Amino acid sequence: MARLNAIRAMNNAGLPIDLEIGYKILEEIVKEYGPHYTKHFDKLLERLGLQWNPRVIAAGVVAYRETSQVYLKPFPDTIPTLIKLRDSGYKLGIVAEGRSVKEWQKLIQLGVDHIFHSVLISEDLGTEELSVDQFFEATRRLNVKPEESFYVSSKPNRGILFANKAGLITVRVRKGDSLVEKPRVAEARAKYTVDKLSEIPNILDTLDE
């Protein structure tokens, strides 16, 4: 939605292209260069054979950020579940890929940045991609063993895959844009699958017993 609104705003600022075609090309650019690339809109103009236009690019950036602020909200059970886990004595951490400032921006916007004991973004380790080593480092920072740690994600072929390789107990939340994604290899299968975060304390209680 943010990308679509960005193209719409760029149109209004003078980008001479059909909305759907522009959106399709932008999606191709994001796929090619990755979501952490910072000049998607510049590449869009370049690919269309147009001159660099700061007004058009700025219009896209503003629309993208405004849309993101509207739509980037936590699920209703997210904050209550995190607080319940923390109050129960669990250490909470985040393992994420991407650029540190951008990921922290999301956490602050979601209103959850203060809840976690540790946040480890891949850029902190000199890369923008997840790795098995990042999970080892995350558990080290929390002073816990991998086999005593839960990793929760909606993405089987990214986070869950690497967490399994690192020996963590994995939980897949069937939500978001990865809802129908299937594991490509056996190691990408989570040990547990839930439909909402509020189910996680029940799993933990079972393990404790």
Helix/strand layout:
Elements: H1 2-12, H2 19-33, H3 40-47, H4 54-71, H5 78-87, E1 93-96, H6 100-110, E2 118-121, H7 132-141, E3 150-153, H8 156-166, E4 169-173, E5 192-194, H9 200-208
Parallel strand pairs: 1-2, 3-4, 4-5
Structure description:
This protein has 209 residues and is mainly alpha-helical. It has 2 domains: 2-71, DNA polymerase, domain 1; 78-208, 3-Layer(aba) Sandwich (Rossmann fold). The protein has helices at residues 2-12, 19-33, 40-47, 54-71, 78-87, 100-110, 132-141, 156-166, 200-208, and strands spanning 93-96, 118-121, 150-153, 169-173, 192-194. A 3-stranded parallel sheet has the order 3-4-5, covered by helices on one side. Strands 1-2 form a two-stranded parallel sheet. Strand 1 (93-96), helix 6 (100-110) and strand 2 (118-121) form a beta-alpha-beta unit. Helix 1 runs antiparallel to helix 4, helix 2 packs across helix 3 and helix 7 packs across helix 8. The longest helix is centred in the N-terminal third of the chain and has 18 residues, at 54-71. The chain is elongated, with a radius of gyration of 19 Å. The protein starts with a helix and ends with a helix. The model has no long low-confidence stretch (mean pLDDT 93).
Helix/strand-derived category reads mainly alpha
How far apart lie the N and C ends?
44 Å
CATH superfamily of the largest domain: HAD superfamily/HAD-like
**What is the name of the CATH class of the largest domain?**
Alpha Beta
- Helix tally? 9
Succession of helices and strands: HHHHHEHEHEHEEH
**Rg on CA atoms, Å:** 19 Å
**Architecture of the largest domain, according to CATH?**
3-Layer(aba) Sandwich
> Into which percentage range does the β-strand content fall?
5-15%
Largest sheet: 3 strands, parallel
Poorly predicted sequence stretches spanning 5 or more consecutive residues: none
Helix content: 40-55%
Number-wise, the strands total 5
Query: What is the CATH topology descriptor of the largest domain?
Result: Rossmann fold
Structural domain count:
2
Biggest sheet: strand arrangement = 3-4-5
Structural shape: elongated
Mean pLDDT: 93
